Amino acid sequence: MSESSGAGTDGATRVFVDHRELLFAIVYNMLGSVADTEDVLQETWLSWSRRTHRSPLDGIDNPRAYLVRIAVNHALARRAAITRRRETYVGPWLPDPVLDEPAADDSADERTLRAESVSLAMLVVLESLTPLERAVFVLNEVFGYPHTEIAKVIDRSPAAVRQLAHRAREHVHARRPLYRAHPRVRRQATERFVAAALGGDIAALMEILAPDVTVWTDGGGKARSAGLRPVHGRDKAARLFAGYARRRGTDLDISYRRVNGDDSAVIFMGESPYAVMVMDLTPDGEQVSDVYIVTNPEKLTHVRRNNEETPAEEGERA
Fold first, then answer.
1. b/e sequence 223-249, b meaning 16+ C-beta within 10 Å
2. What whole-number distance in Å separates Cα of residue 183 and Cα of residue 285?
């Protein structure tokens, strides 16, 4: 390889590394799986490196747009495999929780990109969209891509993209409130709920749980305490948590951390992650409308103990 070719290859590598956080955020919001996102990024890197090895960056006017197009199309192809896995998944399926824990040496831009993930509750709603609708929604609503640019990414006409965006937006807004409680209110409600749930306080649970609350527990068939179906209604949910409180061990440690942009509870058993609990609140922030509990150990492999709690931020997520 000539010296100029080597320099070009190094430049192509730097371009990919510079955009990796953006690609991760887009693909994760499309798939809801950290492992699949990492696989798609590997596929994107291989496609990018093969292209740039032949003629490093020649003919690529906008490397960022080129990389996003490769990653989005690899993610769309990956959806078929994810759908097949879901058909045999044991119990409710929830997205992988992502803790908002940027490394100390991350730049401000990298921290911003890593935080650009919608809430876990919103990811559950996005699962009901078609793959193309979800791609358009993520690119347009979360990352602000105009319809004309999305059309080039997914190889559709701008008119088709506008139609996809309209359908996705209508569906999402029908299932998610446009107004959400202030982060401080969410933090306080989260702590009240966790104290009541893990303490088995039936009276407090009946007060904080909404009448039509739903509890989703994703154990993937690998956690004995995980139910095979969502639990609906305040009475059943309160009994569920009261029973869990009686059975749980005394060596569980609770840490309040931000998960997908929301204050949540991360529970450890020793140094190992045991569960991530994310609460979705009613618009006024007074009651818990949904509880998402991830106990599948395969979905918690990227969760690390951190002695410093992440402080609540003033921003909000979709």
1. beebbeeebeebeebbebbbeebeeee
2. 9
pLDDT in tens, the chain (318 residues): 443 444 456 778 899 999 999 999 999 999 999 999 999 999 999 999 888 776 666 667 899 999 999 999 999 999 988 999 888 888 899 999 998 865 444 555 544 454 456 889 999 999 999 999 999 999 999 999 999 999 999 999 999 999 999 999 999 988 876 566 777 888 888 899 988 988 889 999 999 999 999 999 999 887 666 667 899 999 999 999 888 777 666 677 888 898 998 889 999 988 889 899 999 988 878 899 999 999 999 999 988 876 444 443 433 444
| Backbone torsions φ then ψ of 256, nearest 5 degrees | -90, 115
Alpha-helical segments (H) within the chain = 3-31, 34-54, 63-87, 108-115, 120-126, 131-137, 147-154, 158-175, 183-199, 202-208, 234-247
Residue bearing tokens 């911003």 = 112
Q: Which residue has the tokens 């068939």?
A: 221
Q: Is 253 helix (H, G, I), strand (E, B) or coil?
A: strand
186 φ/ψ angles, rounded to the nearest 5 degrees? -65, -40
The SS3 of residue 222 is coil
SS3 of 176, please? coil
Q: Which two tokens stand for residue 167?
A: 């359908």
Of 97, 110, 146, residue with least CA distance to 264: 97
List the strands of the sheet with 272-281, edge to edge: 231-232, 209-218, 288-294, 272-281, 262-269, 252-259
CA distance 228 to 217: 8
